[in-house]
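Worked problem 6 (solution included).
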Amino acid sequence: MGGNGERNLALRVGIGLLAGAGAGSVCNLLWAGEPALEWCIAHTTEPAGTIWLRTLMMVVLPLVFGSLALGVASLGDLRRLGRIGGRTVLVFLSLTAISVLLGLLVVNLLQPGTDIPPETRDRLVATYATESAARAQAASGLTLGVSTLVNVVPRNPVAAMADFDLLAVIFFAMMFGIGLTRLAPAKAAPMTAFLEALVGVSTSIIDLVMKLAPFGVFALMFTVTGRFGYDLLARLGVYVVAVLLGMLLQFLGVYPLVVRVLGRMSPRAFLRGARTILLTAFSTSSSNATLPTTLQVTERELGVSKEVCGFVLPLGATLNMNGTALFEGVTVLFIAQVFGVPLDLSAQAMLLVICVISAVGAAGTPSSSIPLLVVILQSLGIPGEGIAIVLGVDRVLDMCRTTLNVTGDVVTAVVVRRLEGLSGFSPASPAVPPAG
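Solution. The predicted structure is:
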């Protein structure tokens, strides 16, 4: 799929997104609460969107394993691998810390929690009490300590794949690639050929699935807006504005600056090349489901080499959660304001560190950060049931934070490409024009 193909796909996905959001909003406005609308969503658009999303998710594991193992093997020298890995993680952590800081600055400025009357708070808690209890139960087994690091190393890689433990799969793929570098070229060649074929088959499946992207995106957006409309957004308006403003500052301020200064690429060219990725991330609310598209488009449209894409982007889908960390920081401070729990400067500094660390443990799937939020709330002495206040608008905000997460991965890939001097374009290929 070349440049024209990507542009056409982005246009069709955008049309599907807007059509789904518009149709769902109109149906919600006319028939909100009607059993017929819920039946239509539950039996048509929701299963259709889920099937399309699952088809994308289906190829994530083989693509991640093959791409990352090949990426590591192609780097060859372990010292070079360590250098690229160190730079990648440094950019990840820096972008995540900046995003949380921006979110905390915005929420301190707007004070959204002071605008929620106690009766509205109690009504929201009661409305989402069941879902909140389920999220708290899911959080009961989560920790932010050493066990998170230990669990990165799988005892059984096959079991890790079956459980979709992407972080463990990434570790195994990296070790597999390192093992390939230690073999003689003649012995490594058959396995390298197999991995290349695995990535090729996965890519071919992605091309087929993305042809249906406009319909899948329409179904996903109709399901969200048809069920929830914008009533909840109005009730939690200042909080939603705080989250979105923080994300916009990161997306329109920090990312373009990093792309231009460190990546030596025009921000306009970056956004133009990445538009299909952004639309897919927004509509799926899943970094993992977007990963196949991210790998393809970053290499083809942004000129990042296959080696860098295969190494940086799978790591980013699990480790680099800029939007999730920002959302966590804003939400914790917002709920603390609602319940009247003061968090001074030192407590907010601790919150920043916790959000950066916990975002690494968030799965790249829809609403995966909510159980982690319960853990953070409880660790700071804030009632965990307060998570119920934001559950109604989480799906909409999840689409936005996933877009920020995935954009941060692509920004990092562009920066690492420039630092390592690795370009995916041959001299005859039409490269994206660099800045300056």
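Discussion: Confidence is low (pLDDT under 50) at residues 138-142, 424-436.
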